[in-house]
Amino acid sequence: VSRQLKEEIRRGFARLEDPLAGLLAMLESSSDWKGKGHSLGYCITTELQLWIKEHPAVPQSGTKLKKLQARVLGMLSQCPANLLDPLISIYQLHTADRNYLLEHVSHLYLQGDYKEAAILSIKLKLQPDQDVEKMCTPLLLQDKANLVEDYVGEYPELQRKLLQTLDTWCDPSFNIRDITRPYQGLSRYKPEKFNRRVLSKLVFRLLERFNVDPALCPNVINQRHLRTLNYLFYKRFVEKTMTEENWADHIQSTVGENRWLQGQLVQSLLRHCGARGAARWARRCRLPPDVLPRAVAQELQQLHVQDRVEEVTKADNYEDSKKKDYYQLPIPRENIHFLQTWEETLQCWEKVLQPGQVVGVDMEWKPSFGMVGKPRVALLQLALKDEVFLLDLPRLLEQAEAEGEKEKLPRFIQMLYSDAAITKLGYGMSGDLSSLAATCSALKDTEKQMQGVVDLLAVDKQVEGLSPEHGHEERGVRQPEKGLSLLVQHVLGKPLDKTEQLSNWEKRPLREEQILYAASDAYCLLEIYERLCKDPESFSLGSDLTESLVGKQSQKPRAKKQLKKQEAPSPSGQECQGPRTEPSHPPAPISPREFSVVCDNMLQGLGRYLRCLGVDVRLLDNEDDHRKAAEIARQEGRVILTSGLPYQTLRSQVGEGRCFSVNCSEKAKEQALQVLKHFNVQVSLSDIFSRCQ
């Protein structure tokens, strides 16, 4: 609004004997104010609001104000939303007679203006004197759940009443038509948006938003648990991708002491296992005899007390006989450490927080099966080349809190993620980090501070031919490999065994199968990374894998529907990218005779080519460990030429700028040009073949 117009409006108010009555008369006779956006009526109204603040003598009281308030109320249900607050403030509607206001809102409601009645109630804070079910039902029928949330937003008692009402509607025996019948002619009624499934989702959203105890909504919770039961039966008996132990853990934690769910469990057991199988499981799950049908109760009596449940299905036989079909951990079992004390954890951190270290990071949590709340991390896995550490996060956090040092664990995790000298490998890191933040609020900004991170989820989009493959068809409805398992299959030859993926990771002690699964999930990241760095061309990863994986600074992850794809930041800075990034001060030119290097064993072609140009070259043999390059470099003052994963380890063992990562997918000549350009080596005609016999 121009300054000139504002000044004109203010001069107009100053001339009026009664500015409040004047504004009202103008709005009543104006036709433009009903449109959207900032109309002239809006400009004049907001200017009056500011003008009143500067001229406090203007506000009126008594009979005159009451008459004005009555006229304003009649106007509010038709005026644009942006005029509501200014008009309520100017005409002091909060001070008006409450019964009068309630009567007016009730009149709007009876006219069928449900949305307007609700908005006005929210603005005037009338909700405590209204019937929450009556006010919200027509709004839900019109698919205005957001307005319902706002209506109860500041009133915990109303939130509970609304949730109890919604839960009653979700009772399977309740007839939803009883609610909809009085609103037959409702405008904008969306019956397809008003059913138990939609209501159930709304209940869960409200429980989470308002932090209400789910026990308040037994019908919705039971139905969600029943869906979980059906899903678990499908995974176990149709898909056959869950071990018996894992399945039993989940069944017991889902059903618990709930008698209705116990009855549902027995019915499902009868369908899938017959009376004898159902009896065995009933005993294992300690189901009370009075929930069992007669046939199952009779079978239970016949079972011997010492008989343990041995329901060995084809799926389990399959597990044992086909282990060789899956990725196997290449390190011995004693190198997997399950850490529950701070003493053990500190020893782990000493090994992990080493410059040049490469760490595979993964996390596990108990599946929520759609219940309220974000999953909390139950296990943090850190894999190094020779060992894997499994950190019992809930236990360690509990201990740290008891000792009054609850910032201890977050501090270590932040050090790990923010250290550019340590390469962290993950798969879908954003998902892991949001669960980590839900577990420990001190870690909520970890993602912003990340450095030296490689998210192998980004590789999925680049590796050619990486699409779900069907295999092992004889195993029921075996799902095609996907996600990390598919990447492992593509790069390392065998998929991950995912039968423990949906485990109850909070239960202690962990089963042996869970420990092996958790260790494999983190360790396979190291092997994938090493293989991709050694031979990117085999996986169609373009000429410079290092750039595609780790060549970009950490960016804000782009939202994906399930996990966020993370561009991997560089763990190595300029040298990682060879010639693409010139140092700020190029080194002084030197001749090949002054330049001495040691070439890692995957760069023998480059070494021979440089030797032909007169460079002093030492080559590692195929069987030499990469670390030998660092010994030679230190003893003889040579620059290390290496590629891929070894670069991370070697660069921390020599001085800055004394280790260079070469693009291993290029030919020897291109690699040599890269090296010469980076170190400013000037080759003359007399240097060529000067070292050849």
From TrEMBL:
Superkingdom, taxonomy of origin: Eukaryota
Keyword Hydrolase: yes
InterPro entries attached to this UniProt entry: 3'-5'_exonuclease_dom, Exonuclease_MUT-7-like, Mut-7_DEDDy_dom, Mut7-C_RNAse_dom, RNaseH-like_sf, RNaseH_sf
3'-5' exonuclease domain residues: 336-537
Statement: the UniProt record of this protein carries the keyword Chloroplast: no
GO molecular function: 3'-5' exonuclease activity; nucleic acid binding
Protein's GO biological process: nucleobase-containing compound metabolic process
Entries under PANTHER family matching the protein: 3'-5' EXONUCLEASE DOMAIN-CONTAINING PROTEIN, EXONUCLEASE MUT-7 HOMOLOG
Protein name as catalogued: MUT7 Exonuclease
Organism field: Falcunculus frontatus
